[in-house]
Design a protein that fits this description.
Helix content: 25-40%
Distance between the termini: 47 Å
Strand content: 25-35%
CATH architecture of the largest domain: 3-Layer(bba) Sandwich
Largest sheet: 8 strands, mixed
Order of helices and strands: EHEHEHHEHEHEEHEEEEHEEEEHEEEHH
CATH superfamily of the largest domain: FAD/NAD(P)-binding domain
Bound molecules: flavin-adenine dinucleotide
CATH topology of the largest domain: FAD/NAD(P)-binding domain
Radius of gyration: 21 Å
Number of domains: 2
CATH class of the largest domain: Alpha Beta
């Protein structure tokens, strides 16, 4: 006989696990949760391949608010997600993001800074003299200003965050299953459960889909088009002989990013827009580093002219081609079918806020803390893009 759960979550990486934890921890929830993951090794999950950095330097209020909550959550994770004496440690390093701008970029940087500050983000604007004092290893000839996250921005162990959510969720009674969901079952305007690859079914009061780049294929048979496609993003590491104290998560005006990773540095960039097809493999694009990223970095940080390359890997963004923002909440016409998808490269830091929001929606019927309505699927139906200008 098919099993019944109050909530079934499809996808057990950071977003599925955060939703599972937040629902199980919700004081108003007394039901059962099943968290389904097709690959419990998470080899291809974005959550395991991420640059795992967090910033408040966004251009949309909802993204800023989510990351302000995200950093608060990450700072307290040892207490919040402890299981008995086992306190998760995610190596949070609040090294700050530094967005550099040429003269052309100053109006946007300034406008974003005003918005970020008004919402409580600790971002400071530096002129070139101040930048040179604080970051003497940067070449700044073409730079007119920089915005630096003095606190609240940095990087952490993303895989550790995912596992901490999973461990805590299990300790609160969430059942985990290693299985592939092949179909979302529905009846008129309700989701009723899921079908697994072996043909078995499980029924649910609420179904949440957090299946990363696998989400669009699950929704297609329901007639719900999702403007989300997989896009390959590569990460390269390297060692540099010189010590560069206080090196931030540097965002070059070209879009190339670079930050410390232990004793090494980690960097990446989106490829050219006309060379960014649907991602099908996880092969590293070494030419991207040789021909684009390294020359840009070596010009910006002369010490990077002499480096030793380390490990490199590729992951897939669940890229929202409509407006580069997450799609979170109910999927009309199904009142009990919820989604967390389309994170476009900034989803790891949003997992605490999105999981909490989905728990509120599932248990209380509405958002009670951060209003995630701006991220709703309705904006796609109504052709109202919520453009995020700061995509890295
Ligand atoms: C290279 C790279 C760098 C990034 N850098 C950052 C960063 O610096 N900061 C940041 O905040 N974000 C970053 N991101 C984005 C972030 O990692 C993702 O937004 C986030 O991890 C998405 O989590 P998720 O749980 O939604 O999806 P995923 O981690 O992709 O997990 C989806 C899970 O669903 C499972 N699944 C899929 N289909 C099914 C099915 N049918 N049945 C059962 N299970 C299924 C998959 O196996 C997978 O484990 C980066 C991503 C990449 C790829």
């Amino acid at each position: 006989m098919a099993r019944h759960h109050d909530v079934i979550i499809v996808g057990g990486a950071v977003h599925g696990a955060s939703a599972a934890y937040h629902i199980a921890a919700h004081p108003g929830f007394t039901g059962s949760v099943l968290l389904v993951e097709k690959d419990p090794t998470f080899q291809q999950a974005a959550s395991a391949l991420s640059a795992a950095s967090i910033r408040q330097q966004f251009s949309s209020p909802v993204n800023i608010d989510m990351s302000l909550y995200g950093i608060e959550f990450l700072r307290a994770i040892g207490d919040t997600l402890a299981v008995g004496d086992d306190r998760p440690f995610i190596s949070l390093n609040e090294g700050g993001y530094l967005f550099l701008a040429t003269t052309a970029g100053v109006p946007t940087l300034t406008e974003n800074h005003i918005l970020q500050s008004s919402r409580g983000a600790d971002v400071v604007l530096f002129n070139p003299t101040e930048l040179a004092e604080r970051f003497p290893y940067l070449a700044l000839d073409d730079i007119a200003a920089g915005a630096f996250g003095a606190t609240g921005e940095g990087w952490f162990d993303g895989y550790g965050l995912m596992q901490a959510f999973r461990g805590k969720a299990r300790s609160l009674g969430v059942e985990t299953a290693g299985a592939t969901v092949t179909e979302i079952l529905t009846e008129s305007s309700r989701a009723t459960g899921v079908r697994f690859a072996d043909g078995e079914t499980a029924f649910a009061g609420t179904v949440i889909i957090a299946a990363g780049t696998g989400t669009s294929a699950l929704l297609q048979p329901l007639g719900i088009p999702l403007p989300v496609e997989a896009r390959k993003r590569c990460i390269f590491t390297f060692a540099c002989r010189d010590k560069l104290p206080g090196f931030p998560m540097l965002i070059d005006p070209s879009g190339v990013y670079c930050r410390p990773e232990g004793e090494l540095f980690l960097c990446g960039s989106a490829p050219e827009a006309d060379n960014d097809p649907l991602a099908e493999d996880f092969d590293v694009d070494h030419a991207l580093f040789e021909e684009m990223i390294w020359p840009i970095l070596a010009a910006r940080v002369p010490a990077f002219e002499a480096i030793r390359q380390g490990r490199a890997w590729a992951g897939h963004y669940d890229m929202n081609l409509f407006d580069h923002n997450a799609i979170v909440g109910r999927l009309p016409p199904y009142g009990n079918l919820l989604i967390a998808n389309g994170f476009s490269g900034h989803g790891l830091q949003q997992a605490p806020a999105v999981g909490r929001g989905l728990a509120e929606l599932a248990v209380d019927g509405a958002y009670l803390t951060i209003d995630l309505t701006p991220l709703g699927y309705e904006r796609i139906l109504e052709n109202r893009p919520l453009i995020e200008k700061n995509i890295v």
